[in-house]
Amino acid sequence: MLSRRVIPCLDTRDGRVVKGVRFEGIRDAGDPVRLATRYQREGADEIVMLDITATIEGRPATRRLVAALRAVLAIPLTVGGGIRNEAEAAALLEDGADKVAVNSAALATPGLIDRLATRFGSQCVTLAIDAARHDGDWQVRRRGGRDATPRGAVAWALEGTQRGAGEVLLTSIDRDGTREGYDLELLRAVTGVVTVPVIASGGARVAEDLVAAIAAGADAVLAASIFHDGDTSVGDVKDQLARHGLEIRR
Amino acid sequence: MSAPVAGVIRTGTANLASVLAAFARMGAATRVVDRVADLDGIDRLVLPGVGAFGAAMAGLRARNLDRAITDRVQAGAPFLAICLGLQLLAEGSEESPGVTGLGVLPGRARRLPEGVRVPQLGWNTAQWADGSEPFTVWYANSYGLDGGGTGWEPAHTTHGRPFIAALRRPGQLACQFHPELSGETGARLLEAWWAEC
């Protein structure tokens, strides 16, 4: 039986892991290779690395850091940040990524998703959506949450997966870094319309939050602050998921 | 005799570094294969995964690597296929209708059924037909094969329906899962294949 995935996220800037609250107040959170090594040892099912300034600086995610992570990781690595075309995705796969996550460029040019899926297959293409509550809906934001878009998160998730994205990394900007729990309504709304796996992101505090996200339809749960700051470990979280009767990898 | 070297085929769509890193961790030498001439001196061939069926086949055909792979697999030469690499051995795939595969294995890759999340992304079990203990490995697939060919021992897994998790015969291993991303379990599988070649 397919296990539920626990995925630590490395938001990176200038070669360091960083973390903010609601995408702001960014602070240093450690060395990426050291953290990734620790998470792998603790039983992380995958690692996600998001280069949070790549889009703003008009470049793809840092290849050197991807290569450094790959050298130590024998588990999957998803890389996002600034990917604008197939060539940049191919380069990251050659450097050590196993999946690529697209966000801002796909919002500007949705056909990018189709092109990536046609070449690399849907299973390689993760659509990252940063959503914020707005007028009773969830508005998609781009460029690291800086810019509003006219798109609703649910409709965009549906369109993106119909275009070929094989996974949705769904981040609640309202909950990011707050430890207030995942936005379960958002999760339910998106997992109810797409047929691909959905990764819940933004707001985890304790293992019960991850259990709740899975109950709301998430196939995988992503967290950053609670692992970086040592509130809990990947192993502890997985133990608790198992205690709730969820299938996890030992 | 010189130390063995694995030739890892560059399909243009694969997670090449992950495969190379897995071999590097076990101290095995690798060389990236871009064209037929790169196969000189290569005694072990690796066809990595990731990619859409049609795009990967087009990449192999454009460089005449399709025949080279088929000949070696059929001759029983040391060979490892990963994920899409396994499916490329079949006659075709629902992913890319009209595209002919390498045809080493009978049948076509079929899409996983509705009712489960597709693609399958994550850790699932595999079990060899000999009844040995199931093991847990990482998959990333929307399509699966229903059977293997004559002489291959199958391992099975289930996501929505049962399908081939791996096929093996002496010196040859073809996995639907990604051994290079399957932690220590995957490393042991790769080491066993390397030792058997």
Report on the structure:
The complex is a heterodimer of chains A (250) and B (197). Chain A has 250 residues and is α/β, with parallel strands linked by helices. Chain A has one domain: Alpha-Beta Barrel (TIM Barrel). Chain A is 35% helix and 28% strand. Chain A has 10 helices and 12 strands. Chain A has an 8-stranded parallel beta barrel with strand order 1-4-5-6-7-10-11-12, surrounded by 8 helices. In chain A, a hairpin with a 2-residue loop joins strand 2 and strand 3. The mean pLDDT of chain A is 96. The model of chain B has no long low-confidence stretch (mean pLDDT 95). Chain B is α/β, with parallel strands linked by helices and 197 residues long. In chain B, strand 11 and strand 12 form a beta hairpin. The longest helix of chain B has 14 residues. Chain B has a single domain, classed as Rossmann fold, CATH 3.40.50. Chain B is globular. In chain B, 25% of the residues lie in helices and 31% in strands. Chain B contains 5 helices and 12 strands. In chain B, the strands form 2 sheets. A 9-stranded mixed sheet of chain B has the order 2-1-3-4-12-11-10-7-8, with helices on both faces. At the A-B interface, helix 2, helix 3 and helix 5 of A face helix 1, helix 2, strand 7, strand 8 and helix 5 of B.
What's the layout of helices and strands?
The complex is a heterodimer of chains A (250) and B (197).
Chain A lengths: L4 E9 L2 E6 L2 E7 L1 H11 L4 E5 L11 H10 L4 E4 L5 H10 L3 E4 L1 H5 L2 H10 L4 E10 L2 E6 L4 E6 H11 L3 E6 L11 H8 L6 E4 L5 H9 L4 E4 L1 H4 L5 H10 L7
Parallel strand pairs in A: 1-4, 1-12, 4-5, 5-6, 6-7, 7-10, 10-11, 11-12
Antiparallel strand pairs in A: 1-2, 2-3, 7-8, 8-9
Helix pairs in contact in A: 1-2, 8-10
Chain B lengths: L4 E5 L6 H10 L3 E5 L10 E4 L5 H10 L2 H10 L4 E4 L1 H5 L3 E2 L14 E4 L8 E9 L6 E7 L1 E2 L8 E7 L1 E9 L2 E4 L7 H14 L1
Parallel strand pairs in B: 1-2, 1-3, 3-4, 4-12, 5-6
Antiparallel strand pairs in B: 6-9, 7-8, 7-10, 10-11, 11-12
